[in-house]
Amino acid sequence: MNEDRIKGKWKQLSGTLKEKWGKLTDDDLQVAEGNREYLAGKIQERYGLAKDEAAKHVKDFEDSLR
Predict the structure, then answer these.
(1) For the chain, what is the HEC assignment?
(2) CATH of domain 3-64
(3) Could you report the per-residue pLDDT of 5-34, keeping only the tens digit for each?
């Protein structure tokens, strides 16, 4: 699923993201609004992951939406 489609379905995906990464706040998800890099940065920050690992988690999530 490309980034434009993710942005279009962001409200629906926010719930799924919150289930997967419960430490993300509603504000985090609202600001992210489909921005892959911002989302990876927040996951990195909240879960103490390396940048590459957080980016991989986001990519894997995107891939699971296909």
Answers:
(1) CCHHHHHHCHHHHHHHHHHHCCCCCHHHHHHHCCCHHHHHHHHHHHHCCCHHHHHHHHHHHHHHCC
(2) 1.10.1470.10
(3) 777 788 888 889 999 999 999 999 999 988
Domain boundaries, the chain: 3-64
The Cα–Cα gap between 31 and 61 comes to 18
Closest by CA to 24, choosing from 53, 58, 64, is 58
24: number of Cβ within 10 Å? 19
Per the prediction, the chain carries an average pLDDT of 89
